[in-house]
Amino acid sequence: GRGRRGRRWWAPAGSALLLSLLFRPPLAPEQASLLTMLCALATSDAITRVTGLDAPLKWPNDVLVPVAGELRKVAGLLTETGIRGADQPSEPPRLDYVVVGIGLNVNVDFRTAPPFIAPATSLREALGRPVARLPLLRALLHAVGERYDRLQAGQSPYAEWQRRLITLGQRVVADTPQGQLTGMAEAVDETGALWLRDDAGERHRLLAADVTILE
User: Fold this and answer.
1) What are the strands of the beta sheet with 194-198, ordered from one edge?
2) How distant, in Å, are the alpha carbons of 29, 31, 144, 159, 191 from that of 91?
3) Statement to judge: residues 40 and 125 lie in one domain
């Protein structure tokens, strides 16, 4: 599979859920992140419903589970969009489509992972037993459907997504395309951007970055 910044998502056959969901929402381009929030929450919901594990979120697109007393990444999301009307000044641009890719490590054994794979975990490693993928897939799609219905009815996932983020209020290091920043993760806005106050007191609005929480 493919992750952020061209990274590879490694999963042997039959060991993970790897899927792409296509949406055609009646939203403005700056609202595309609502679909990422929605799918992250649905992934967390499904994990908890099927396994009983808490599954908090880490900005921008990771789902975590507890393993041996610490939180580790078990799932990630990647969103791509298409925009219509961008070349027509008479009409405001609208989203043509949003594709959200989800990779969820179910029974992956990372002891056999190649060396280029970043540290992660699986539900099997967290629970100490195999997890059936089909019930998990059903729970995930059901949660996505429920949350998408709410979004179409005008209920934003933003507030709940914000509450489930473990990143906020933490001291972090953010690797951005412009360089590295160290400071406090203060807030997220409704576009999904992270507000970070660096050690010099300056605030930065981050749309994309690799964030590490400092102990």
Assistant:
1) 203-206, 194-198, 179-188, 171-176, 210-213
2) 13, 17, 30, 30, 22
3) yes
Mean pLDDT (10-residue bins), the chain, 215 residues: 58 91 94 97 98 97 95 96 78 90 94 73 96 98 98 97 97 93 97 96 94 90
Cα separation, 24 vs 19, in Å, equals 17
Token readout for 123 is 């539900």
Count of structural domains within the chain:
2
What's this model's pTM, rounded to 2 decimal places?
0.91
63-83 burial: b if 16+ Cβ within 10 Å, else e: bbbebeeebbbbbbbbbebee
Q: Are residues 63 and 12 in the same domain?
A: yes
Give the span between the Cα atoms of 90 and 192, in whole angstroms.
28
